[in-house]
Design goal:
This protein is mainly alpha-helical and 251 residues long. The chain contains 10 helices and 4 strands.
């Protein structure tokens, strides 16, 4: 010890003293860093569980994503949404029908649902207000020489059900009249749709009122072909309206 330099001895003692209190501090800092890094990144649900907070389960619709290749070469996602336990449509379910039509015993109404038919019927209403109003009431107005047109239309629709009986009588009692329009009579008899049957009959009637009955009261009308088509549609529409409104046909 006597050979040591006093200055070096003091420096060595200072280093030993510094290590005695800094070394434990460095060890503690290292341990804290290891604990923090071990926790890692947690999702919101994981953090909620760690903190004792209950995690709400997802109960919304399940989203399925499918990818299709478009014609342009660009891939577009197509997203469809399905709800768990959602009711599936019944494949055997038929189209809804008008319950009032079934209850009233109306025929197949496909003809009057045609937009072209409806346009003709509206134009036929205008023609009737100029021509038919001279003998019939239309919309509550007009002459009273004959029954209201709606009542006449309902009667005609009902009589189409027994048209074959009328034709058979005509064959026997008025064969010349039957032979003159035989093709038309056969076409009317063979038609199964009641409204189409009525349309065929009305076309013959409006061209020549006595074509199937010598006692027809309506005078001969000079009508253009398009006016006949329009009046036919209107009278058919009027017959259906009359049944729905409870109009009583003529006896």
């Amino acid at each position: 010890m006597q050979g040591l330099n006093p200055g070096r001895t003091q420096g060595f003692l200072r280093m030993v003293g510094f290590s005695r209190w800094t070394l434990p501090l460095l060890i503690m800092v290292s341990l804290v860093s290891l604990v923090s890094c071990g926790d890692g990144a947690k999702s919101p649900d994981q953090k909620a569980v760690a903190n004792g907070t209950p995690v709400e389960q997802h109960s919304g619709p399940i989203v399925e994503t499918t990818v299709e290749q478009g014609t342009s070469g660009r891939i577009d996602p197509e997203v469809s949404t399905k709800t768990p336990n959602s009711p599936q449509p019944d494949p055997d379910e038929t189209a809804s029908q008008d319950p009032s039509a079934q209850a009233q015993g109306l025929p197949d109404l496909s003809l009057i649902e045609d937009p072209a038919f409806q346009r003709r019927a509206k134009l036929g209403h205008l023609v009737a207000k100029k021509r038919c109003i001279l003998c019939h009431k239309i919309d509550g107005r007009g002459a009273v020489l004959q029954p209201p047109l709606i009542q006449v239309s309902v009667r005609r629709l009902e009589r189409m059900n027994t048209f074959s009986d009328h034709v058979n009588t005509m064959r026997q009692e008025d064969p010349n009249r039957y032979e003159a329009r035989e093709k038309l009579f056969l076409a009317i008899e063979e038609e199964t749709d009641l409204l189409h049957k009525m349309s065929l009959w009305l076309h013959g009637y409006l061209k020549q009122p006595t074509f199937d009955n010598a006692q027809a009261k309506m005078p001969l009308q000079v009508l253009k072909p398009e006016e006949i088509d329009q009046l036919v549609s209107y009278v058919i529409q009027l017959s259906i309206d009359g049944i729905r409104e409870g109009v009583k046909p003529l006896e």
